[in-house]
Amino acid sequence: MSEGAAVPYGITALGTGTAAAIPDVLRLELGAEVLAPNPQQALTEASRALDRMRSELTGAGVAAVDLTSGTVSLWPRYEGHEEHGKLLGYAANLPMSAKLRDLTEAGTLISRLIAAGGEPARLHGLSFEHSEPATLVAAARAAAWRDAEAIARQYADLSGQPLGEVLSVTESPGVGPIQPAVLRGGMGTAAEAVPIEPGEAAVRVRVEVRFAFAGAHESNR
């Protein structure tokens, strides 16, 4: 807008739209952690445990593209977590994330892979996702637009002014909260399935729309 130009009269409406669906993907944040007398032994034992867990996943049909290795950590561990305390050994942590697309067998598979990893196995958290989030975002976007337009029309009617063209649109997207979980090895036998309840996850979109009053441009000339 050039300097000195008149700002059109109008209405700014904030619309909110939500679209929900049952998630169809479960993301696991897992790994293997070992404390050993020396660094090499810690890495070796952690690697073997993670390999067993990976084999359990691939054997259950989890594709390689759905497995992602994380950053390997190796550090000395001291008594009381003090650097000048007694050295207890060296800890190695090998993380990996996995996407499970068959939720009907997810609980049983989680139990089996933790059992396969043994004592070093760690399940740091899990979260549900949608395989096609763009579809939900589009639906939430449309709902947010309808909401903003309805609000603007109501205020236009109350003010006695006809609603005109759209001047600007600003979107602020967001998603529902993720509920984390932390589990450890030794949680049970492979026959004991971990309860998995995906529930329903929602995508929420907020949009700010500025409408001019009809004829506002002509009146500002």
Descriptive terms for the model:
alpha+beta, Alpha-Beta Plaits, six-stranded antiparallel β-sheet, 29% helix, disordered N terminus
Short synopsis of the structure:
The chain is of the alpha+beta class. It has helices spanning 39-59, 106-117, 133-159, 216-219; strands at residues 10-21, 25-36, 67-69, 73-78, 87-100, 121-129, 163-175, 183-184, 201-213.
Q: What's the architecture, going by CATH? A: 2-Layer Sandwich
Number of domains: 1
Largest sheet: 6 strands, antiparallel
Mean pLDDT: 86
Helix content: 25-40%
CATH topology description: Alpha-Beta Plaits
What do you see in this structure?
The chain is of the alpha+beta class and 221 residues long. It has a single domain, classed as Alpha-Beta Plaits (2-Layer Sandwich), CATH 3.30.70. 29% of the residues lie in helices and 38% in strands. It has four helices and nine strands, in the order E-E-H-E-E-E-H-E-H-E-E-E-H. It has helices spanning 39-59, 106-117, 133-159, 216-219; strands at 10-21, 25-36, 67-69, 73-78, 87-100, 121-129, 163-175, 183-184, 201-213. Strands 2, 3, 4, 5, 6 and 8 form a six-stranded antiparallel sheet that branches. Strand 4 and strand 5 (87-100) form a beta hairpin. Helix 1 packs antiparallel against helix 2 (106-117). Residues 1-7 and 175-191 have low confidence and may be disordered.
